[in-house]
Amino acid sequence: MMPTMSYRRKRFIFAPLFIVMLAAVSAVTMLLWNALMPDIFHLTEITFWQAAGLLILARLFFGGFRPHGGWPSHTWRNKLRAKVSDMTPEERDRFFRRMHSHYHHWHPDFSEMDKEPSKKDKTE
Questions:
Q1: Taking 50 as the threshold, does the pLDDT of residue 7 lie above it?
Q2: CB-based burial of residue 51 (10 Å sphere; 0-12 exposed, 13-18 middle, 19+ buried)?
Q3: d(Cα 22, Cα 48) in Å, to the nearest integer?
């Protein structure tokens, strides 16, 4: 059995890695900004530190400071699994058909397919 790294040891490994990654992403952001934005939108060029500040600001606006950023996707997935697990196979099929037709407007309305065929349809 391999010993696991202690928290302190991980911190000393990942802290410099985080700084190097932030510097690399900041440099790429600065280069892309300076290559595109002044010509397209007539904005001024930015420095390395301004690019780093933009990245941190974007993280605050769009990701927060959660470890994985953004809203946790597993919460809605767990609620859906719980809801579907309590359904009968017929209810489950009807639920997913309605969900599919709701999100894909160009597909036929599956609610019409769930109805009993009329006498006119049976004679044909």
A1: yes
A2: buried
A3: 11
Quote the Cα angle for 102-74-64, to 5°.
105
Structure tokens belonging to residue 100? 């599919």
Rounded alpha-carbon distances, angstroms, from residue 73 to 69, 76, 77, 95: 10, 6, 7, 21
Q: How many Å apart are CA 93 and CA 52, to the nearest integer?
A: 49
What 3 state SS string does 6-33 have?
Answer: CHHHHHHHHHHHHHHHHHHHHHHHHHHH
60-86: pLDDT as tens digits: 888 765 555 445 556 777 888 888 888
pLDDT bin (cut points 50, 70, 90) of residue 16 is confident
111, 98 contact by CB (below 8 A): yes
The residue that leads in pLDDT, 116 or 9, is: 9
